[in-house]
Design goal:
Aspartate Aminotransferase, domain 1, Aspartate Aminotransferase, domain 2, 17 strands, globular, binds pyridoxal-5'-phosphate
Amino acid sequence: MIRINENYNQLKASYLFLEIANKVAQFQSENTDADIIRLGIGDVTKTLPPACISAFHNGVEELSSESTFKGYGPYNGYAFLREKIAQEDFQKRGADIDADEIFISDGSKCDTGNFQELFANDITIAIPDPVYPVYLDTNIMAGRAGDSKNGRYKNIVYLDGTMENGFIPQLPSKPVDLIYLCFPNNPTGAVITKSQLKEWVGFAKEQKALILFDAAYEAFIRDETLPHSIFEIEGAKEVAVEFRSFSKTAGFTGTRCAYTIVPKECVAYNESGSKQLLHPLWQRRQSTKFNGVSYPVQKAAEAVYSSEGKVQIKQRIDDYLLNARIICKTMDDLKLNYVGGKNSPYIWIHGNGRDSWDFFDMLLKKAQIVCTPGKGFGQCGEGYIRISAFNSRENVQSAMERMKKIL
Ligand code: PLP
């Protein structure tokens, strides 16, 4: 008899964005001429930068001739891309990361979801609330979360984000082994300062814990005092792994390219308490279960670091950030409390007493705007919605006009 992994039955019934899509589809079928503006899912709306398109074409062209054809590539990604990343994203910011410590992949969703495979099943995990759902769901699938009661899993240490702490969670008061952090944050748009991040690194060292640092929105940081990488913090290389993605940086959500940094000195512990390096473990995992990102996609990603690529990317992100400013200004005018929107494409808005699905329904029905209900990101998200700046200027402006009319 073929039996299922019972841990899957511990997952909440439906994936947040599916639930939203169903509600929107139902509304659209009942209101066929409604002009819906989607400020919900965090997908980009702008094209790949021309520099990436051109490199992508050239990469495809190389596959048409035997002398330049590429079959399977290196598991960790081509050196031409890893070297650019190491120089441009890390060494130039004073973070001592080598090309050998970078693993190219087809997405941070898979990397953040897969990395937990390297660890024992009885470790204690600290997960922020609200949170990007992948961290929690993949640990539930692995059987680490335990039973759920009142919407919370027994074995998870939740790191609560609130308006009071600015959605920067406090250090846990009990011992933990694996800590997920994401800054600039999805869903709240909150950012962490160097001194706050230093505290987390110090805590991880003290606890012999590991931080999985998701920096998928790093390119949105404009405040130069903020860290772009956890490796800008001294001593982080022993206790942190970082996830980066070209998805939001350069519009690769459909093209798929990301990377994970596993420093050579980063450790976990075996049963006898001895240190074991994570780099060879992740290398082993990837070479067994992953066969690399296609050559033309890696060429397209390399073009992100060309001089034209840098200009085109900055223009795109500046444009999204201007949308975010327009949204923030509207929230100021409406006197709604929010965080984010400054160094992030997300604005996390307090509903002034409305619960988050009510706020979602009201915006859909009265203004034909789709947002994301905060509750979908965890218990601490109740009472909030997330609005994303990934849209055209025109759509953002008309959505904000509509919100002003109904609120
Ligand atoms: N990490 C965070 C925090 C995200 O919000 C997302 C996508 O929305 C990802 C990772 C996934 O990125 P990718 O497209 O590289 O899989």
